[in-house]
Structure prediction request, 686 residues.
Amino acid sequence: MIANELRKDYLLDRWVVIATERKRRPTDFIQKTLAEAKPENCPFCPGNEHMTPPATLVYLMENGKIVKERDTDGYRHENWIVRCFPNLYPAFTPPKNGEKFEIKEQRFAEAFGHHEVIVESPIHDEHPGKARISQLLHVVNAILDRLEFFQKKSYVKYVSIFRNHRREAGASLSHAHSQIIATPIIPKIIELELKASKKAWENNSECAFCEIIQKERESPRFIWENAHFIAFAPWASINPFEFWIFPKRHEPSPLNSNEKERRNFAEILRFCLGGLDKLLNDPPYNLGFHVAPVGDYEFYHWHVEVYPRLAIWAGFEKSTGMYINVIPPEDAARSLRERIGLK
Amino acid sequence: MIANELRKDYLLDRWVVIATERKRRPTDFIQKTLAEAKPENCPFCPGNEHMTPPATLVYLMENGKIVKERDTDGYRHENWIVRCFPNLYPAFTPPKNGEKFEIKEQRFAEAFGHHEVIVESPIHDEHPGKARISQLLHVVNAILDRLEFFQKKSYVKYVSIFRNHRREAGASLSHAHSQIIATPIIPKIIELELKASKKAWENNSECAFCEIIQKERESPRFIWENAHFIAFAPWASINPFEFWIFPKRHEPSPLNSNEKERRNFAEILRFCLGGLDKLLNDPPYNLGFHVAPVGDYEFYHWHVEVYPRLAIWAGFEKSTGMYINVIPPEDAARSLRERIGLK
Prediction:
């Protein structure tokens, strides 16, 4: 019996036990529950636009070209390709009267910001693991439109883009959608990544994330790549089958990406999430973008992290901030690589 | 419409949105699922001792007094009051040949340590929310016996004691039990608490935690107290109905507690977890001890944190380290206070 391995994240002071002692096979994680059936009256489906707030952005197709509109005067656009609107129960809301954001006594503040939903397709279950790449490209473009829009607000310091897949991962509605939350402070995890990557940039004149890409491209944790993006299982994965997607070109924010890169990003999302879907029968997951905050962060490198929800973080994880992962990332990468290879 | 409130934890740089916009009533969180039935062949029930590893500690009652024993030579003690044994799938294991713990290249190490289960009662479902206080006192004593034992190991830096209640909170078996994990490094959350409390100790010659007790005792977040312990909902609760239990006497570790204090601790656990149980129909929760690591940490103040699992931390929480909590701690405390008051 060899002891399990403790591993530390590339940049964060975050430790995980890769618990080979209780090593499990990928097949142990195959989901037995079916995806939820399409509900009778889905508020995100076409025809039910009145059940949600007016759209802040819709993509419409006119003469083969995307036209961008928003709902005004009680009118709801129909026949949309992608639709964005405020969350009915927003965690963050814009200031009503131009108030400035202010932290009082270092311990509380008003939660100024935005909280929107991005419906990814008029087709109820066209989620990124099975979407047409052309559709996914519209989703990426719409997300970036909203990112750009929110970053201009004076009270916004960071914009978090994420998607929760299936109810077990926190999705209260099953229609394919992402969410976007603009916050008035830089969140902790991003702050820690900024701190570590700034240090590497200043000490070694190099990007800490570019270095990770170089290393993982040749490692047994490599999963898939195309011209502009690479996917791998991180060295200190805190979730079974976790994977990260990085742009190969150093860029703090996805806003500067060109059409070719966006299409490549849609493609790698489609292939990797599709592989996960097929390997484990559509498991629940959380997906989060990590992007540079508003401002000058040339040393940062945007990316996406995908956290399948196949294990429960319980008392140990919650009271220590240490993690236990029963699938070594090398095994996760091999399974995903093989599955994606089958197409 | 007023914006939600952003709140920061007492000591950690951890922010939560108290989302009054989507404010929910306690009744919204009442569990509908019944507790799991007692399985036919529970490995933790009396008579099935051979299904688990030999006990490292059992409490036996002889002539009205507790006698401490351990299983040896294939013999399994029966008629135990409390029973401790190694986890069948340990996350951490002791070094086999006296190897020293060593972190290699700042990023990996062997996971030396211990991982044990503490069966809290011969009665399948005698969990702390409904246990006899006399039984709970035995559990507390056994936990502290193991804590003391593990802290003497050269490769142990910290001992984490926790309990996962119900399958949804990560308990793979329904028989009442806690777990104890001894780790070779100081976990992140404890390290951050140590750092912040050391600073307060050195700057103001006072305990940061004693100050919290003083403040919360008079606040609307107060829940319950007895002679030696106090329970309250923390200012920046990251979970609905979260509560913390603190000893009133400043003490880095529970090991120095006397019999009276231990009985008071068993009592406050029983009343608060019992209140939670009755208020929300036995919800899943994680409970974690926060104790001083091995060494001299006079500025630390041990305590217990209870995290009911009534909401899902999803893409936003996982990619930012910020939280959204839909029950203000003031409301949680009032409901728990009222429920405990009914006895």
Notes: The longest strand of chain B covers residues 158-165. Chain B touches chain A through 69 residues (CB under 8 Å).
